[in-house]
From TrEMBL:
Gene: bgt1
Keywords from the UniProt entry: Glycoprotein, Glycosidase, Hydrolase, Signal, Transferase
Protein name, per record: Beta-1,3-glucanosyltransferase
Signal peptide residue numbers: 1-18
Molecular-function GO terms, alphabetical: glucan endo-1,3-beta-D-glucosidase activity; transferase activity
Organism field: Aspergillus fumigatus (Neosartorya fumigata)
Localization (cell): Cell envelope
Chief place where the protein resides: other
Any one Gene Ontology BP term: cell wall organization
Length: 124
C-alpha cells in the first residue's frame, strides 16, 4: 500500500481512538520549511490548519526562536492549548522562566494560563 493511502487511514484511526479515549494533539516545529523561525502569524496558520482535528499542540522548545513568546498569544487567539517543552537543565529552565517574567514579555504567558496547558521539563 502507498504512503499516500496509509497516512489518511492512520490519521482517521488515530482521531477516532483519541475521540474515544481523550484528546489528540500534534507536535509542532518552531521553524518554517526554509529554516526561518516561526512567528505568531505562522502558528496561527498552523492552528487554522489543525482546528478541524484538534485544539492541542506540543512544542519541544520554549526558548529557541522565542517560541513561547510567539506560540502562546497565537494559541490564545485561536483557542488552542499548548504543552510547552522546556529543555531540562538549570540554565535553560531558569532562562525560560526569567524570560517569561520580563515586563516586556508577552503578558498572555503570565496573565492568561488558558492557552498554556502545561510546561514540561525534559531532555528527549
Amino acid at each position: 500500500m502507498r504512503v499516500s493511502t496509509l497516512l489518511p487511514l492512520a490519521l482517521a484511526a488515530g482521531t477516532a481512538a483519541a475521540s474515544k479515549n481523550g484528546t489528540l494533539g500534534f507536535a509542532l516545529g518552531n521553524k518554517n520549511e526554509g529554516g526561518k523561525c516561526k512567528v505568531q502569524s505562522d502558528y496561527e496558520t498552523d492552528f487554522d490548519t489543525l482546528k478541524e482535528v484538534t485544539s492541542l499542540v506540543r512544542i519541544y522548545s520554549a526558548s529557541d526562536c522565542d517560541t513561547a513568546k510567539h506560540i502562546i498569544p497565537a494559541a490564545k487567539a485561536k483557542n488552542f492549548k499548548v504543552v510547552l517543552g522546556v529543555w531540562y537543565g538549570t540554565r535553560h529552565i531558569t532562562s525560560a522562566l526569567r524570560q517569561a517574567a520580563r515586563p516586556d514579555y508577552d503578558k498572555s504567558f503570565t496573565d492568561d494560563f488558558n492557552a498554556l496547558k502545561e510546561a514540561v521539563p525534559g531532555n528527549e
